[in-house]
Amino acid sequence: MALANILGVRVLLGTASAQQGVEARSAAAQTRPTGIVQEFSLTAGETQWQIAPGVVTTAWAYNGTVPGPELRVQEGDTVRVTFTNNLPAPTTIHWHGV
């Protein structure tokens, strides 16, 4: 394994520290629930997308849009997502910022 020093932070490349999980759980434990439940419905499917004037292509989209909708919630909210996959292949969602 390689050890790197990035901006003064020592990082062991190729492994994940068990301590990171403890820190993540500790941060989550400090978040107080707001009592607000945010519900979203996402449908993955094919759509026709105009990528340039007169140029249309088939794209995979969420709720018919490219890019898909932005989902914004507050820290402590409960999030419920109903996901329907109408694509011709299995898919997953990458939750940026979670």
Q: Can you describe what's shown?
A:
With 98 residues, this protein is mainly beta. The protein has one domain (2-85). Helix content is 13%, strand content 43%. The chain is built from 1 helix and 5 strands, in the order E-E-H-E-E-E. It has one helix at 18-30; strands at residues 2-6, 9-13, 37-52, 55-62, 78-85. Strand 1 (2-6) and strand 2 form a beta hairpin. It is elongated. Residues 1-16 have low confidence and may be disordered.
- Could you tell me how far the N terminus lies from the C terminus, measured between alpha carbons in angstroms? 28 Å
Order of helices and strands: EEHEEE
What's the tally of helices?
Answer: 1
Main sheet: strands, sense, barrel: 3 strands, mixed
What is the typical, i.e. mean, pLDDT?
Answer: 81
Coarse shape:
elongated
Task: Specify the helix fraction band.
Answer: 10-25%
Assembly form of the protein: single chain
Protein structure class: mainly beta
Task: Identify the notable features of this structure and list them briefly.
1 helix; elongated; single chain; mainly beta; two-stranded antiparallel sheet; 98 residues; three-stranded mixed sheet
Can you lay out the helices and strands and say which pair or pack?
Blueprint: E1 2-6, E2 9-13, H1 18-30, E3 37-52, E4 55-62, E5 78-85
Parallel strand pairs: 3-5
Antiparallel strand pairs: 1-2, 3-4
